[in-house]
Amino acid sequence: MKTLVLSMISIAATVAAMTACTSESDGIDDLTKDAPVEIKMSAKVLNIETRATGPINDVNTAIDDIGFIRKDAKPADANTIDWTTSPTEYSAKIAAGGAITFTPVPYYPADKATSAYMIGYHPKRTVTSGAVEYTIDGNTDIMYAERVDGNKEKTTALTPNFNHLLSQLVLKITGGTTEAEANAAAAAWGTISSISVKSIQPKYTLALSTGKLTVVTNDNEATAINFEAPASGFPTIATTTDDAGYCMIPPQGSQITLAVTTDKTTKDVIITIPERTGENPRPANTTLAGEAYTVTLTFKANEIESTASVTAWTPVAGGEGTVD
C-alpha cells in the first residue's frame, strides 16, 4: 500500500437560487415565483476517493455514504437551534465530477427570511438525539463537516469542510539493510499473520452539533483493533521497506502498543511518538485527529525495533523506540 497522504477534504457546495422575473402581462411568472427551490450542491474538489472501507484519499473517484442533517431557522436563531430533536436526515453521494445528489431531494424554505442549516458527516448512521454511534474497526474513516446555511435567494457558495476525526497509523516492515540481517530475522520470526493496536475502546458517539467524538462509557470493553493488510497480505521480512497496511483509531493520549503475531510467536511492540514543540504543539505519545503516523517495524533476529514519524496531514520529524 502506498503511503497515504490524507488531507483535509474541502467540499464546496454551490446553491443555485431560482428567481422569477415578474411582469404585469405575464401570468405564468406569478404562478411560478413561489415554487419550491431545490437545494443544489456541487463539489469544487474533483479528486475525491471513497472505498467501502479504508481511508479516504485524493483520487478521482466518488464519495458514498454521506449523511446530512438539517434544521430551518431564522438567522437570528441559528445559534440556538436544538439539533437533538428530530432533525431532517438526508443521504448523499458525491460523484467524481463533483455533483452531490441527495435522498430525499431537499428544498429551501418558501420564506426567504428563513434559512436551511445543514451539517454533514461520514459514514451515514441513524441519528439519535442529535448523535450517531460508531464502532471503531480500524478501516472506516470518520469525517465531519460543520454547519453551513443558505436560503432561497442566496447565490454565494456554501463550503462544508469534511475533517478527519480519527488518527491513522500507516505501517511499514523491513528486515534490516543486509541480506544476512533479513535472513536471520525471517528465520526467527517466520510469516506475519496479524498486527493489531492493543487496548482500544471501540464504541464512540459523534455529537453532530459540535463534531465531538466521545467514548461510550457503558459496555465498551477495550479490545485489539487490527491493521488492514494490503490485498496481497503482510509482506515477508526482507531488506526492502514494504507497506504493511493501515489502522485508523480514535486520538490517543498515551503510548500505543502493537501486538505482532507470526506463525512462531506473538510480540508486543511499544510505539514512541515524538513530542512536537513550537506551532501547534503536541505532547509525546499523543495522536491527534487528522494526523497520519508512519510506523516502521524493523525485524531483527532477537527483537523488533520501531520508528514512528508523522506524515501528511501534518508532517513533523520522527522518533523511535526499541522493544527487546
UniProtKB/TrEMBL annotation:
CDD domains: BF2867_like_C (cd13121), BF2867_like_N (cd13120). InterPro entries: Mfa-like_1_N. Keywords: Signal. Residues 1-19 form the signal peptide. This is Fimbrillin family protein. It comes from the Bacteria. Gene3D superfamilies: 2.60.40.2630, Fimbrillin-like.
